[in-house]
Design a protein that fits this description.
The chain is mainly alpha-helical. It is built from 9 helices and 4 strands; from the N terminus they run αααββαααααββα. It has 2 domains: about 200 residues, no CATH class; about 70 residues, no CATH class. Helix 2 packs antiparallel against helix 3, helix 3 packs antiparallel against helix 4 and helix 5 runs antiparallel to helix 6. The longest helix has about 30 residues. The protein is globular, with a radius of gyration of 24 Å. The relative contact order is 0.14. The model has no long low-confidence stretch (mean pLDDT about 85).
Length: about 290
């Protein structure tokens, strides 16, 4: 069971919500949309996992944004506003802003992926794609499981080695190579055992039946309609050029006029829908406790 109120909705609705957040977060590079996406992702990550979410934002997402902002002008010299020149290489304001914006965009996408991992489970992903794309869904789920599985196994090997031999004072590279060899050997043996197990259970011999204990309820339909309406408003604003942002060779940012402000408001609502659901559930829980 995933964390958060969004995990209690139908898996298709939950997956669709994160799909919209990720796709729009990657496609809209206007500073307003990037900042909204980042704030929404950070807030939701902290709401789901507390200090762990904040730690991920500070240790993983923020360094990525800063490194992109710092190193992009080193390789990208486009721009009309030269800040300074070093070794015949011009460092421009446009290249630095470009790196900062796309660094924040990438950080927001990382945080939304982190939130997705906390809310969506492999069972729910199979429930969404199990009937239509069973092999693809199974392969995707198995691939996602490999990273935490190998990390856990690497930590176990390291702890066992330190318990037997102590912390190596010299030859750390050789010790790391030995531990990597152990993990790699275990991974190959595990793959063989898993393949034999799948073959013994009849995998690949005909169409598999799939059971998913999920019912599409009224609240799932309401949330789906809300997501589609917000996406339609944002798409209409994008088609009208209200979301346009150009950074090279000069910075040109679209300024909304008239009804186009609705696209900006819709994106704010979309980014904070998961957090709003959490707040609504917490408020309802407090009311029930006060009546008890």
């Amino acid at each position: 069971m995933g964390k958060g109120v969004l995990a209690t909705y139908h898996p298709a609705v939950t997956f669709g919500c994160f799909l919209l957040l990720l796709l729009l977060g990657m496609c809209l590079s206007h500073p307003f949309f990037v900042v909204c996406s980042l704030l929404g992702a950070v807030s939701y990550a902290v709401c789901l996992t507390g200090k762990a979410g904040l730690s991920f934002a500070l240790k993983a997402a923020l360094p990525v944004a800063l490194l992109t902002a710092v190193f992009n002008p080193v390789f990208n010299h486009q721009g009309v506003t030269v800040l300074f020149t070093w070794h015949d290489h011009a460092y421009t304001k446009e290249a630095m802003v470009f790196g900062l914006v796309y660094g924040l965009l990438f950080a927001a996408v990382l945080l939304w992926c982190y939130c997705y991992g906390q809310v969506m489970t492999s069972e729910k992903l199979l429930a969404v794609f199990g009937n239509r794309l069973p092999r693809t869904a199974l392969l995707f789920v198995m691939t996602l499981r490999l990273i935490p599985r190998y990390r856990r196994r690497t930590r176990e090997v390291a702890e066992a080695a330190e318990g037997l031999y102590g912390t190596p004072e010299a030859g750390k590279l050789r010790e790391s190579a030995r531990r990597f060899s152990i993990v790699l050997t275990w991974a190959m043996e595990s793959a063989v055992v898993q393949a034999d197990s799948m073959q013994a259970r009849g995998y690949g011999k005909g169409r598999r039946s799939h059971y998913a204990p999920y019912i599409f309820r009224q609240r799932d339909g309401i949330l789906s309609a809300a997501l589609l309406a917000l996406f339609g408003i944002i798409l209409a604003g994008w088609l009208q050029g209200a979301c346009k942002a150009v950074y090279l060779p000069e910075i040109i940012l679209a300024v909304p006029v008239g009804w186009q402000y609705l696209a900006y408001a819709a994106y704010v609502c979309l980014c904070f829908i998961p957090l709003a659901l959490e707040g609504k559930e917490a408020l309802a829980w407090r009311r029930r406790l006060s009546k008890a």
